[in-house]
Request: fold
Amino acid sequence: MTDLLEPRAIGQSLVRRDGEQKVRGTATYAFETPVEHPAYAHPVQATIARGRVTAMDTAAAQALDGVLAVLTPFTAERLASVEDAEYAVLQSPDVAFRGQLIGVVVAETSEVARQAADAIAVTYAEQPHDSELRTDRPDLYAPEQVNAGHPTDVVDGDVEAAMRSAEVTVDHTYQTQMLHNNPIEPHATVALWEPGADVPLTLWDSTQGVHPDRAAVSEVFGLDEEQVRVVCPYVGGGFGSKGNPHANVMLTTMAARALPGRPVKLALTRQQMFFLTGYRTPTIQRMQLAADHRGRLQAIAIDVVEQTSKVKEFAEQTGVPTRMMYASPNRRSTHRLAPLDVPIPSWMRAPGECPGMFGPEVALDELAVELGIDPVRLRIVNEPEVDPDTGKPWSSRHLVECLRDGAHRFDWDSRGPGRRREGDWFVGCGVASSVYPTMRQATSTATVRHSNGRYTVEIGAADLGTGAWTILPQIAADALDADVADVEVRIGDTRYPTASVAGGSSGTNTWGSAIVQAAREFRGKYGADPRDGDEASGDVDQASPNEDHAAYAFGAQFAEVRVHADTGEIRLPRLLGVFACGRIINPRTARSQLIGGMTMGMSMALHENSVFDTRIGQVANHDLAEYHISVNADVQQIEAHWLDEHDPYVNVMGAKGIGEIGITGTAAAVVNAVHHATGVRVRSLPVTLDKLLPGLP
Amino acid sequence: MDAEISLRVDGESHRLTVDTRTTLLDALRERLGNTSPKKGCDHGQCGACTVLLDGQRSLICLALAVAHDGAEITTADGLAPAGELHPVQQAFLEQDAFQCGYCTPGQVCSAVGVLDEVARGWPSHVTEDLTGDVELSDAEVSERMSGNLCRCAAYENITPAVQQAGAR
Reply:
């Protein structure tokens, strides 16, 4: 247990410090970094889904005026490390998936680079590919572990026996769709290779973590980390896709190394991003619930089938939230992967929890209907006293309070029995729970320096829209007992001390803890009246660990939907969330993160769908005209509220993460509301008109 | 093939040589170093490149520079003098109508265009009374701002920001 910081700056709704630059457009994102005499790179992608490049005729490309370099698997440098197959760019003529990088052109202008890339004639030896996710595939396998180091399978008790003897059971299969992160800023890098310089490689890269980015690039190119600098003050969104560097970063670095002294710029096109920058795997979730007549769970089980790329494994931890959400004596959660000839899946906002709070939360709604119990009440009666997965006590768990507060704010009790019709519209309401683990990364260091009554805090953290530029000074100010106006925080550069990735909703917990440690070191050394130049640093691993408690943020989301009786058109007039996510550092930016997550959850429920054409092995709708994300007119009323939760175990700020919880459970709340409105149960996302029309009365 | 054109951008005149394939967006970003308009899709699908082109909001990733010789362009950075903010920008700040900020200059320019269109009485798909003044209702603002995607999903804050600026 820690003594919480006395909140003075913490809790204030300060306006974003980077706001003026952003509303003017003068904040420089990676591609926009002013550099002298840049060259422009354009990638070449494989146009087969599996096989081998047998020849690349680059003569026409090289003959174009302004072409500076053409790299192919036959001419590119050999990398120091090819351990990570995603990063082994141009190291082999083998093609593992359609759209894989097989070359790059660098030219004086972006137009010429693109023309030259198109002018390269590629000959292939094509092989049959296999890109269809099915549960009856004989090659499904159990990975060694799933993302974030969770065990692949957890079995406790006997689910099958409970299913046979229970008074009520639910046994259905739910599916979530393939999703692409699609930050509006495309993945982009400017690379400068200056052999002989102290720091020969500089990358201005769009990344969620300059230090992890540097570590990956250094290893691939056989450089010491001190030989590489990564700079990224602003990130135009990432949602996980910029958490790890992808192949485009290595390709741009290679291109720069072919043109020493010349900054090389490469921004992926929107279409290229659908092949190269990760995505959320589609999931197939078989859910089993067994309960007594009062709704108390006797068994809960989730068996997940999802895909990975054959060249690099990523195992989304979809079954993990089922392990801890509700009490049940018999529990099972398993993951099986289909290895396919497809692009490499990766992190997308709340990997695991986002798809993993769909099947279970819809299945609970089906159980509530079966039992005739209010779905809010059903969740409350299954509240566990301790974490069912580990047996540890909760650091704080206020799911029940979120459900009750949300029900009150939403006027849930007036929702009626369902299938209510207002004119041409069916109206209904649904609920689901939200959850996200409170994570702190192992490494991060901050320094505090004093000069003339002002404090400068440096940490190589990232702000991808989360508000880190604004809230880290608030934390530092309270830790230093200083006025927030006298604190400057610098982030986004490997010249500042090591910081962990902005992922897993862990930024505030991790970097904030390091900053508090640095501030305490500083005050311990220099007292309240420091001299100019006094400096101290602190590490996150000095902060008291929280190993004795299970730490999670919780929430409840309530959705109202309207379905047109004739057309099946779906509208979402209201979405309301109540969250218990620790102390809120900045209500203004926090609310934006929560409603942003909820809106992305609504987008998943109703709009987003990467339609994978298994005949050719690619996403067919690979642009923003056809991959629909929610637009302004889709949003009517989205409210995010939070409880005044003070968790003394998570960290000295009392803060849990808030970047991801908003997207968890939302799609289930929408699906449950659609059922309440129409009687149609949609078990496969997204909810589209064609799935409703046959069932409308 | 190259062509020489003139552009007036944020009050400054430029004479520049462009490839005839160069979009107005790339002319600004890659030739003139004005990166206030953003590239999100390069296909007119996201709205991040929205500027005021000869006074009207326009997607300049779909415009060839050579076809706009002599054009007058205002980007988000040109809406107010340095150190000041346009009322729309001020409202975006106060309402926290953005997170990552990448779509924001396009949203801001689009909002300035919307307020002008509304002031002129131009109806939209959701305008019920086609003869009277257009009200800046939630539905009216949302409809008109739906060409500007925001992946951080600040829509819930963008709409009141546009209304706040429009009420001044």
Notes: The mean pLDDT of chain A is 97. The longest strand of chain A covers residues 550-564. Chain A touches chain B through 65 residues (CB under 8 Å).
